[in-house]
Design brief:
Layout: E1 3-7, E2 10-14, H1 17-23, E3 29-32, E4 36-42, E5 52-59, E6 63-72, E7 75-83, E8 89-94, E9 100-104, H2 108-118
Parallel strand pairs: 7-9
Antiparallel strand pairs: 1-2, 2-3, 4-8, 5-6, 6-7, 8-9
Length: 119
Amino acid sequence: MSSVTVHDGVLRIELTVPERVLSLHGANIEIPLTEIRGARIVRDIFGQLRGMRMPGAGLPGLLAIGTWRGMSDGRTFHDFALIHHSGPGVIVTTSGHYERLLLGTGEPEKLVAQLGNAG
């Protein structure tokens, strides 16, 4: 499973080799904290997926890894999902390439606290 860390002003998602293959994303994801507009905990991270998977892998309720694209309020969006199982997660809203990062985690409070304490 990937490693999600906050260090030196950057949210870093280190994708494993299988996650890189499934997401068709060749590199780790790094978001400067200055581009993070917010983070919130949700009880059902799968319920937050929107748009169509392009590219990536998905099995409803089991796995969602990759980019989801679509239109919302007349504009296009790109979200990156890293979800390995149903349950809680964190939605990180950014002003960068991805509008949102959807991160499935069993410890969402810990990640939100890291983001809040890093600024």
